[in-house]
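pasting for the record
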Amino acid sequence: MACSVLRTALLLLLLGLLVQTAQHQRSDWNEVVREALRALDADERAPDEYPLEKAVKDDVNKAAKWQLERMFHDALKEAEDVERELEAEATSRREVPQSYVVHVDENGVKTFRKSNEQVEEQRDSKLLALSSPSEPAAQQALQDRDSETESQLKTRDKKLENPAVAIELAAKMLANDTVLTTASAEPSISELNSRLSTLAANSDMFFLMINGIMVYFMQAGFALLECGAIRSKNVVSVLLKTYVDTIFCGVAYWLFGYALAFGGNPNKFCGTRFWAGESMDSAAYMKWFFQYTFASKTVTIVAGAVAERCRIGAYMVYSILMSSLIYPIESHWAWDPAGWLHQGDGQVGYQDFAGSGVVHICGGAIAFVAALLIGPRLGRFKNMESELLITHHSVSMYALGGFILFVGFFSFNGASQQVISGAMDGFIASNAVHNTVIAGCFASVTGLFASRIVSHVRTKGRGKWSLFATVNAGLAGLVAICAGCDKVHGWGAAMIGVIAALGYFLLSWLMVRIQVDDAVDAIAVHFGGGFLGVVLQPFFKSDGILLTVGTSKATVAWNALGWNLAGALTITAWSMGIAFVLFGIMKYCGRFRVREEVERGGIDVNEIEEECYPSAVGSNSPIIPNVNVQDSFSSQPGYQELPDATETPDSDEVPDSTRP
């Protein structure tokens, strides 16, 4: 009994699905199916209580046969009507009726389309019409093509979308051993080439978008590194400046910068079109975004060198001028095909793959001028013979910022090829990332052990490791490898990293000797590493000076060194010259540096609405000279001063024992 009922229910369920697919459901038949399923679910009832069980069991074969015959009869009738309409239409157009096939689109809708043979025949007729319009056959093809209007096509396709017709015609074709084929003809060679071109263009844009986002994220690394290197009373001011150079750079680079750097109708000095994106092709928007991230990174290099004493307004003016004039012009010289440095002597020119000179020499040179004119922080240098190291308020922030910058350089260097669809683009990008890792690691290792040696010499046997020197030396190596990361071998990248790290220590020591206060060593990292990278690239590249000694290529390699030196010196002079004018005017007008009482109390509490650590100095506090976090906590319950605590000239200043 149970098996009979189960078989009955399954058969009825199958019939119901067929009826629903054919869109010819009948209310009475559906009611029979629903009643049968409900009866199966209520198996605890007596068999006599099933209201439809007997009728279903006795007449199931008869009912099924009746339903199938009715469904296919209706489908066959509608299919024959559609075929007659198609035959009449083909006859009126003097065409021989062709076979039609079932076509299922991406949404699962079944329609009828003409077979491949007829589609190809119509395509050939159209091509003939376009090539030889004077031929009678071509003229007839044009008339036939034009006669089938868009409305007629829509009307015919709508009639063919009936699923019942599709089912019946498919059954007939299968019964006649007809092979179902796709409706559309195979694409031509030109169509395939067009699709490949579109795919390549989209791949290049996606490549720039993803890596541009990573380069932009380096702003977070700069913010954390600079915040960790300064005192807690100025953290918000550094964060605000990081946002300021990003947003003002976006405005200025869109209005003026990109047009000067890569605009249309360029000359050897600058571009002359695309002001505010005018008449710029939308396909170039992603290149604009990628170049904007480079410009923003160049602007923010200066922030660390003038931290804790520069006015917010002065930094805004600098960000606008840097993004709209200084950086765009020199980037055009070096990177635009029309630039005079890029062209060189026609045989070789300035070579700087990812910006050791264009980005880092420019930013480092301006940082030097800014730090020199604004002067050192209060208490930074006691006299000409001694130095006081202002303590870093967060080592963890500094380390995390260094990690983020390290990761960002993978995209900064790897994506400077700017395309990925070419035959060699992937190899160039992979070589750039490979060399970036090697140079950064070798530079960091050099900085780690060099800091230990320097500390050992200064303390006469009590040397210590330095995290800050390790991070900065690694960054100097990453900066130096930018120029040649696409062309040097692995051993060359290692040598460039080691030399850049040693150069960082030397330039950092020199800045202290001339009492230029750089809170994050931006000058030593960016200018020092960038200059060395540009100069060392012609030596260590695969066809460079060291590998072409005694060959015919040696002359070209030495010429490349000359052009790189010319480019480095030109970028330095251009950047420093405008920076001296800009910051000199600001200093003369008294709008460059904050007042002494503001600097002592902290820029956050005096010039910014928010404070990073309000519990340390009190929310909305007035100007407080010589604010110290330790003094603020000394009044808290449970605070006890360490017995061996010693006073220093300023509670935020300690003698330097580890600075390189």
